[in-house]
Structures are given as structure tokens and as C-alpha cells.
């Protein structure tokens, strides 16, 4: 199963609890949508989706879209200038320890989960901004 690592620091206790709660919530939402999938597959896809969402920046340019070659800025070849990391089906297969065929078959489910995570994150950010405006 994919692991979620946070760059630059260890996850403190309350973050681990929050992460477990998010995983359980996403597994529940996933299971309601994809009723025929087993609990193990749901857990693997949820953790993989979270890992991809957390580590979405390109490894080569760290999300900056460009690299410096000498004194010249060049578009990052790894991400094509998007700043985003692209996970291949082969990489996902290794990370989740699932067959390549199962990963290809589940690609739309991973996309649904990542979209759900992104949408919910935006909602939280809007709410936080709204609450902070009331304080300021």
C-alpha cells in the first residue's frame, strides 16, 4: 500500500489522527459509490489518491515549472511546464502492490477520489478565508 510522507517534518500525533479520520471518511464515500469493490481495494485507492494529492508537485522542478540551466531558464522536461507530477500506471502498480491491469481498470476511480479531495480542500480554504475576514 502507498505510504504518505510529509516533506520536511514528521507528522505529529494530531495530524496522524486527522489523516486516519480522512482516510476512513474517504473509504466510506468510495464504498458508497463503488459498492462492488472490496474494503482492501478501497483502502489502497484512497491512500494512493491522498499520496498523489499531497505530493502533486513535480519532483524535478518542485512545482516551479522551470529549471535553471546555467543562467538560462528552461521549461521542465519532466512535467512539461505544468509543475505537476504525473504518476504512471506502472508506478501506481508498484506503490499499491496491485496488478498493472487492476490499476488501469481503477484509473477513473483514482481520478474521482483526487477530484473529491481537491473539491473538499477548496471548500475548507474558502471557509477559512471567510472566517479570517470576520476577525480582521
Layout: helices, strands, pairs:
Elements: H1 13-33, H2 39-54, E1 66-69, E2 72-75, H3 89-96, H4 100-105, H5 107-135
Antiparallel strand pairs: 1-2
Helix pairs in contact: 1-2, 2-5
Description of the molecule:
With 136 residues, the chain is mostly helical. Helix content is 59%, strand content 6%. The protein is built from 5 helices and 2 strands; from the N terminus they run ααββααα. A two-stranded antiparallel sheet has the order 1-2. Helix 1 (13-33) packs across helix 2 and helix 2 crosses helix 5 (107-135). The protein is flat. It starts with 12 loop residues before the first helix and ends with a helix. The model has no long low-confidence stretch (mean pLDDT 88).
Keywords, separated by commas or semicolons:
2 strands; two-stranded antiparallel sheet; 136 residues; mainly alpha
Largest sheet: 2 strands, antiparallel
Q: Percentage of helical residues?
A: 55-70%
Work out the strand percent: 5-15%
* Order of SSEs: HHEEHHH
Structural class, from helix and strand content?
mainly alpha
Record the strand order, biggest sheet.
Answer: 1-2
Radius of gyration: 17 Å
Q: Residue ranges: pLDDT <50 for 5 or more in a row?
A: none
H/I helix tally = 5
Taken from the alpha-carbon principal axes, the silhouette is: flat
Task: Report, as a whole number of angstroms, the end-to-end distance.
Answer: 44 Å
> What's the average pLDDT?
88
How many β-strands, per DSSP? 2
